[in-house]
């Protein structure tokens, strides 16, 4: 699995290396461009940034992605604008195609923001395609704006503002908490910070701790809960 992942990750690097080599005839330049495609070894010179990236998983990957996008926007503005426009068009196509479908509309916001859902007409079969990072946000804002205008409901102004905040937060998800502390903070707040929803519903909070489970609660979690409940 790791070898397959490495091959898929390096496919774009190899293609860029060959393309640059054929143009510049310089192996050094080709190697630099291939590595610079997404160089996760970059950490910056700021001490506080290095501290954050060392304790918060994937924060460096997020920062490098935004840094690379900013550079690409400056150096290849037409290509970036084309990709952003294509993402908006695909997002709007999905919305107009399935926006009135009950199954599509019942999807949680985080799922709509993260995946394109393709449903085979006349069946219940559907599959998801991950949306591209960075560009997904402009597509999500586009279809949500159209959704608010179509429904012409004052309440949807608040929902749109909430959705925008959630989309931006999810795109720049850098909660300054080490992940070994984050679960305890979420439990104390009773909120999943990524999905932006309560961990336990209001209905569950009226039940005794040992009965706060659903169809999706694993047997292992139930067993651990029972053991912890009996600890004096």
TrEMBL record:
Boundaries of every Large polyvalent protein associated domain copy: 101-228
InterPro entries on file: LPD38 (IPR040561)
Protein name (record): Large polyvalent protein associated domain-containing protein
Organism: marine metagenome
């Amino acid at each position: 699995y790791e070898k397959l992942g490495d091959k898929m990750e390096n496919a774009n690097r190899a293609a860029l290396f060959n393309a640059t080599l054929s143009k510049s005839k310089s192996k050094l330049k080709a190697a630099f461009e291939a590595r610079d495609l997404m160089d996760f070894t970059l950490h910056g010179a700021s001490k506080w940034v290095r501290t954050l990236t060392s304790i918060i998983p994937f924060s460096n990957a997020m920062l490098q992605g935004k840094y690379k996008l900013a550079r690409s926007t400056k150096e290849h503005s037409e290509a970036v604008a084309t990709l952003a426009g294509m993402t908006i068009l695909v997002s709007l196509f999905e919305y107009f195609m399935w926006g009135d479908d009950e199954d599509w509309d019942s999807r949680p916001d985080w799922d709509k923001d993260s995946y394109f859902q393709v449903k085979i007409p006349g069946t219940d079969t559907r599959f998801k395609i991950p949306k591209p990072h960075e560009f997904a946000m402009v597509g999500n804002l586009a279809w949500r704006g159209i959704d608010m205008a179509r429904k012409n409901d004052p309440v949807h102004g608040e929902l749109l503002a909430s959705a925008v905040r959630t989309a931006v937060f999810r795109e720049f998800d850098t909660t300054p908490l080490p992940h070994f502390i984050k679960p305890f903070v979420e439990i104390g707040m009773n909120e999943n910070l990524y999905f932006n929803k309560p961990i336990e519903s209001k209905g569950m909070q009226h039940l005794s701790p040992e009965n706060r489970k659903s169809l999706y609660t694993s047997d292992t979690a139930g067993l651990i809960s029972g053991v912890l409940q009996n600890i004096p």
